[in-house]
Specification:
CATH topology of the largest domain: Rossmann fold
Largest sheet: 3 strands, parallel
Strand content: 5-15%
Strand order of the largest sheet: 1-2-3
CATH class of the largest domain: Alpha Beta
Bound molecules: tryptophanyl-5'AMP
Number of helices: 13
Radius of gyration: 21 Å
Shape: globular
Order of helices and strands: EHEHHEHHHHEHEHHHHH
Number of strands: 5
């Protein structure tokens, strides 16, 4: 608890431009629950290093991600929006927790297997221990709740296992976090191959809607979205393309699947796809305006980064010192 509020922790990797999946599965929900919690949101730049980054581009992406958090509605004066790499406690706790994590556990991580297959020329140790650093992120802030998309569920489970193992050995050091996975939007699928997750790194640009796509691009991508041979707007497992579009429409408008089925009863896929494209473009436009204005205001962003880095350091160091003491590392002489 901080200021009588439970603690919420989440973050995103600082690579590429966020997708509609990142937004509907995570960012939009962060904004809607941020008032109820003491919130920490990291720009997860250390995690991004598990894949080769071009330095200048990487730096720019990290700054853009920070601005997108703010533009999406996270007030940096109420939420601690900070850079993971600016709080050295993450790497330090990450190392300690590496020593409390079994290779057998890490071998089971499906995201590692997927990423290793995708980057066969760079299967580095960081990619392997990625979930342990993620556990350190969460546990440093004694988080109660971690809002994420469904692809992070396994990482949350290993985080809880590590925390419980540590607590069993040393007493109640860490709060055991709960994952918060939204009912709708937890897995937004590709617009071109609806059996696959929408992903930042998809080579087919039409598969992924990006938060900075302009209105025409958004509408064009939805018009080209893969549906099926029928013409009925109905939510069902045998209609993955249409169901994905319905999920997107529902997340943005707040309508239920039944309401959407009724709304488009007797209308074809063309009308439906246009409506989805328009509602997404309308949702993104104000966010984009705020984003471009923010990028102009370098002084404001830098002030937010500095203050929040310090706040994050304060809470993270408190937990780190406790852990160091528990495991028997020698205290510093002051
Ligand atoms: P990342 O950067 O891959 O994704 C950020 C968030 O977006 C969600 N997401 C999706 N949700 C729905 N549909 C999709 N197609 C989709 N694609 C991505 C992800 O589930 C995630 O919530 N390991 C994390 C970053 C991280 C983190 C943490 C998160 C590092 N440390 C501590 C929480 C707590 C990641 O790679 O997210």
């Amino acid at each position: 608890m901080i200021n009588d509020k439970k603690v919420l922790y989440s973050g995103m990797q600082a690579t590429g431009t966020l997708t509609l999946g990142n937004y509907l599965g995570a960012l939009k929900n962060w904004v809607s629950i941020s008032d109820e919690y003491e919130c920490f949101y990291g720009v997860m730049d250390l995690h991004s290093l598990t894949i080769r980054q071009e330095p200048a581009n990487f730096r720019k992406n990290a700054r853009n991600l920070y601005a997108l958090y703010v533009a999406a509605g996270l007030d940096p004066e109420k939420n601690c929006l900070y850079y993971q790499s600016h709080v050295s406690a993450h790497a330090e706790l990450g190392w300690i927790l590496d020593c409390f994590t079994y290779m057998g556990e890490l071998n089971r991580m499906t995201q590692f297997k997927d990423k290793a297959a995708k980057h066969a020329d760079n299967i580095n140790a960081g990619l392997y221990t990625y979930p342990v650093l993620m556990a350190a992120d969460i546990l440093l802030y004694q988080a109660d709740l971690v809002p994420v998309g469904v692809d992070q569920k396994q990482h949350l489970e290993i985080c809880r296992d590590i925390a419980e193992r540590f607590n069993n050995l040393y007493g109640e050091v860490f709060t055991i976090p709960e994952a918060y996975i939204p009912e709708a939007g937890a897995k937004i699928m590709s617009l071109q191959e609806p059996e696959r997750k929408m992903s930042k790194s998809d080579e087919n640009e039409n598969a992924t809607v990006r938060l900075l796509d302009d209105t025409d691009t958004v509408i064009r991508k939805f018009k080209r979205a893969v549906t099926d041979s029928g013409n009925e707007v109905r939510f069902s497992e045998d209609k993955p393309g249409v169901s994905n579009l319905m999920t997107i429409y529902g997340c943005v408008t707040g309508k239920t699947m039944e309401e959407i089925e009724k709304e488009f009863d007797g209308k074809g896929y063309g009308d439906f796809k246009l409506a989805v494209g328009e509602c997404v473009a309308d949702e993104l436009r104000p966010l984009q305006e705020r984003y471009y204005a923010l990028l102009e205001d370098k002084t404001y962003i830098e002030k937010c980064i500095k203050e929040n880095d310090e706040k994050a350091q304060y809470f993270a160091n408190k937990t780190l010192r406790k852990v160091q003491k528990k495991v028997g590392l020698t205290e510093r002489i002051r």
